[in-house]
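User: Hi! Is it possible to get a structure for several chains at once, not just one? Here's what I have:
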Amino acid sequence: MKQEQIDALRHQPIPNQGLLIEGQWGPAVSGQTLPVLSPIDGRQLCTLAAAGQADVEAAVQAARRSFDAGVWSRMAPAERKKVLYRIADRIEAHHAELAVLGVRDNGTEIAMAWKAEPGSAAGTFRYYAECVDKINGEIAPTPEGTLGLIHKEPVGVVAAIVPWNFPLMIGAWKIAPALAAGNSVVLKPSEDASLSLLRLAQLCLDAGLPPGVLNVVTGTGAEAGEALARHMDVDILTFTGSGPVGRLLLKASAESNLKRVYLELGGKSPNIVFGDAPDLAQAAKVSAMGIFRNSGQVCVAGSRLLVQRTVHDEFVERLQKVADGLRVGDPLDVTTDIGAVSSARQLSRNQGMLAHALAQGARLRTGGQVIEPVPGGQYMQPAVLDAVQPDMDIARQEVFGPVLAVMPFDDEAQAVRLANGTEYGLASGVWTGSLSRAHRMVRAIKAGLVHVNTYGGPDITVPLGGVRQSGNGHDKSMHALDKYLDLKTAWIQL
Ligand code: NAD
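Assistant: Yes, the chains can be modeled jointly so their relative placement is included. Here is the combined structure:
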């Protein structure tokens, strides 16, 4: 990643964007559009087509036609695999373009977006390409004279609704396994970050994905998202986003065709530092980035820091120093540690939750100010709060911003109680030099992910998903394929 490479792309004009339906780009039937504003400087980059009911209908029909025609669903697995590999190659060939486009759209610091967006999306397509011809059926151990076959089949039409943080990475986590399993897809990116996914869709066509197998409807959640969620011919709805929208989607499924709904929702993840942690300096550095990277807009962010009282003051001091040293600035500068907050709405929500925490008695140790390193943009200094009580809203509710709530604990039992004391269960971290304690904590914490002596970085080989109100179903790993397959039994009398 070179600054000159990024500078050459940062001012490229971006054309107004259309919808992708059956391999053709076009406007919404209503002709309506939405402006795309860059959080870097508040300027308008282009417009998105605002899909409505009629566009969603056309996209779902196109997906269904392609599925029933078998152009993808019945293509020889070895051939499907080649197409997915070619998509990965094309993402890599357009790495810089995709990374810069995404950052202009949502403000993630380029150092992070470079790896986490095109880098990880290419790896995800390659991973699932390798799976295509390894989805074996089974022969059941039935009595003499009978044969029980268990087929694994693609389900049909998958609707994927994704958020504005890491759109390429999260989009790929859904599109790649759904396609590997032989389904057709209708993708609904977030209205706050659609551009890199629209570009990815064109790269998929260029790589030979047949028309209609991947369709993209941009627009608002209330219109395009809701129409997909309520559609009678969508078989699976796979979603990453907020809890309140997750609830609406379950309701929409119940009130329409009972489509399967997989939810990857938010969290208030505990990051727990014991006094016997092997390297407190390293723990402070990694823990700070575990909450503050991408301005805290990371679903697994370690937003609650639980520190054993014996090292509390020393550790919080170290972490505060790290936070104060992070440079918030232009996300397209390769030396920036933390980029922009993705939208004015999100920035004002962050500020509101911070003010509310202070009103409830939390103490601001550092940060929290709105700054403007680039005129017109949205930026916020990382905030560290202590004197946080477990019943305060800041200890229980997701901010999805650069705000860390610190709480002390005395022993392991109290750490577990605090860790499990919210409605969420997405991620967590444990810092300890004791192998036994690490394993005890892994078992005791109610979360889909427990980091030990690190925070962040699990790769595509392991699942990511929550328990409790962080959702159900997992993205990533071979397990994600199961979401997009149906089991069919053939019971044969011989
Ligand atoms: P959001 O729920 O507001 O929006 C997500 C998507 O849902 C967008 O595409 C939006 O247009 C759409 N949507 C909104 N209203 C809808 C409706 N009524 N019907 C159908 N679709 C609708 O979430 P966001 O603000 O984009 O993302 C932030 C949230 O996502 C946070 O809570 C974060 O924790 C969560 N998240 C979770 C994970 C994970 O893997 N668990 C990963 C990233 C983000």
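The chain has a mean pLDDT of 98. The longest strand covers residues 146-154.

User: Great, thank you!
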